[in-house]
Amino acid sequence: MTRHPRMLEPARWGSLELPNRTFMPPMGTHTANADGTISASGVAYLVARARGGVGLLITESIQTQDVYDLPTGSTISLTHDRHVAPLRDAVAEVHRAGGLISANLTPGLGRIMPGGPGGLPPFSASDCPTLMDPSVRCRALSTEQVEDILDRFRAATRRALECGFDAIDLHGHTGYLTDQFMAAVWNTRTDRFGGDVRGRATFATEMIRIVREEGGADFPLSMRISVRQGFPGGRTPEEARELAVILQDAGLDVLLVDAGSYEAIDYSFPSYYMGDGVYLPDAEVVKPVLRIPVAVNGNLTPDLAEQTLAAGTADFVGFGRMVIADPDLVRKVAEGRPEQVRPCIRCNELCIGNVVAGKALGCSVNPEAAQEATRVLLPTPVVRAVTVVGGGPGGLEAARVAAERGHKVDLYERGPRLGGVLEPAATPEFKRELHRMVDWWEGEMARLGVTVHLGHEVTADAPEVTDADAVVVATGSTPWAPPVPGADGLSAVHVLDFHRGAHVGPRVVVCGGGLSGADAALELALDGHEVTIVEAAPQIAADMVVHNRVALLRRLAEVGVRVLTGHRVTAVGGDAVACEGPDGPVELPADTALLAFGVRPDRDLPDALADRPATHVVGDCVQPSKVGDAIHAGYAAGAAI
């Protein structure tokens, strides 16, 4: 019997019968062709998730007008008739894969655009400040221009219906143009599109009316709003409830809820710092006042999704980044194999990070994401004996892929556990998804017949190497510290040793403000330690994706971590850490100096095997980097054997 009966039961999304209560919320992929048509990779991405059993796929935001916004060059559009045929074919492919699909339509970005047509400021509901530069005011749309946007929305709706979509979803959240009309902080209009909550909702209710007129009274229609916008002057719970009822009465079938805005970007794309069920409080705000179903997502796991449905907090549960990480999530749960779901580690690096940077969507843990059309693992024509040295993310992924293709794989790890640097890094509760990732790999090793050898050091002349047909070297990195006096003393503890259980005192100075140092500081402060971070650079966690960094800095401030940037550690004593800052020397009382200066590649085995054929070197032993880089390199190595 399944552990997730509510999640897997059929349910109605308006007049549309879904096979289960799951949906994929709209997520940008930046895979569209430059002319706004959907690409082959975009189609394959959707089809993979349809095959994976998601009850309803909702597309990324589809542009409905390109007059008052600048074209992005990588977003699906329905602004012209030429966009219809490729999208119609995509919808047909999803249907052939057994899926249902809704078109997410957006009338524009407004004030969050870096600029508007003609090199002038962007348009918005009113002359509110632009996001990129608050000293620059938006151009307020005239009543005639708003009506023109709605006329163009009507034309796009007709095209969406011509494509054969099963439903339409309206983009009304995260501070995009529709949200700008609905929010008092951005809408100071005096015509029929402004005023009180009902007046500010007119732009949205007009779009609802248009869909009803074009698609019919029973055509499935949903909309997503931000219940909490997350900044002073943003939407209140009372306004959110009133707005939700207005939208329901205007003709919505389902209301999707979330939180955040570009002013509170960490809520729009919740990272691992924010825990599970980030938007459940928002569902609880509006659910009691509505007759129509409520849909929610935001760091849900299958178990939490089941609990949410059973408690009546929501009627549908969404998996966004989780089905980027594993498109087969729902099917695996339905087949009683939830432990085989590849977890999303909520790093935001290659999904949200790529899209914000204008690149095509990727995934740190799933190298095939948005590349399903080209990255296909085919059975090997010749079975080879493969030795993988190193049980970190790069080595584990290489072993998995090679074994998936049919090779005989032995994996050797010199330590007592698999996971490499992930194993100690996953000790804080907010990083438990990393533990789940290691658990998943362990399950894959067993499922695929990989022989795992723990506590086994491999040398260049060992038979494990010389007798193998192919070798993958993933020996990782070693801790590094500058020649600071006292850094080898009893009061100095390396960050990895701390994660492995080394004792630290009540007062801790973290020497190094990279990601590992900052996360360790947060973990220590949450455990009650007095913590100071010392970093030579102008800011901590500088190479971290911005959405996560905002959440990290907020959490560090909440727990009272002191941050000293522009300071260089000069000595570690028995009860203090000496630093040099812009205003001269500083002495910080400390029981423990936590060394988080960084790591260097472990090059011994890679250099010894440099001339050996059929040898692949991946991960931190090439160049210390992020977990996604190691996983992608391991995937490529396993696929190349």
From TrEMBL:
InterPro entries: Aldolase_TIM (IPR013785), FAD/NAD-bd_sf (IPR036188), FAD/NAD-binding_dom (IPR023753), NADH:flavin_oxidoreductase (IPR051793), OxRdtase_FMN_N (IPR001155). In the N-terminal section; belongs to the NADH:flavin oxidoreductase/NADH oxidase family. The keyword Flavoprotein applies. It comes from the Bacteria. Keywords: Flavoprotein, FMN, Iron, Iron-sulfur, Metal-binding, Oxidoreductase. Residues 386-606 form the FAD/NAD(P)-binding domain. It comes from Cellulomonas wangsupingiae. Residues 8-339 form the NADH:flavin oxidoreductase/NADH oxidase N-terminal domain. Pfam families: Oxidored_FMN, Pyr_redox_2. Its cofactor is FMN; [4Fe-4S] cluster. This is FAD-dependent oxidoreductase.
